[in-house]
Design goal:
Elements: E1 3-6, H1 7-13, H2 15-24, E2 28-32, E3 35-40, H3 43-66, H4 75-83
Parallel strand pairs: 1-2
Antiparallel strand pairs: 2-3
Organism: uncultured spirochete
Family: Belongs to the phD/YefM antitoxin family.
Protein name: Prevent-host-death family protein
């Protein structure tokens, strides 16, 4: 479960508000005008999420290669193909 803090509380109380919140919760959601806008999480979890994204991108690239969905050629050829799609 994530804790919640408003942008106004963050503005008035500063980083101390986040530090206090993260003592109880691992994630903190910052709301702006009543809407969830940002998430603060421990750097270890952030890094793990980034690794998951990279792993997913690598798997997608491997599938594309296995299924022949790639092009070879010069940078100029690639740029022309991209701009004309």
């Amino acid at each position: 479960m994530a804790g919640h803090i408003t942008a106004n509380d963050l503005k008035t109380k500063g980083i101390g508000a986040i530090e206090q919140m993260t003592n109880d919760e691992r994630e903190v959601i910052i709301t702006v005008r009543g809407k969830q806008k940002y998430v603060i999480l421990p750097i270890e979890e952030y890094n793990q999420l980034r690794e998951f994204e990279l792993d997913a991108a690598i798997q997608e690239a491997k599938r594309d290669i296995a299924e022949g969905r790639y092009h070879t050629g010069s940078i100029e050829e690639h740029m022309n193909r991209v701009h004309h799609v």
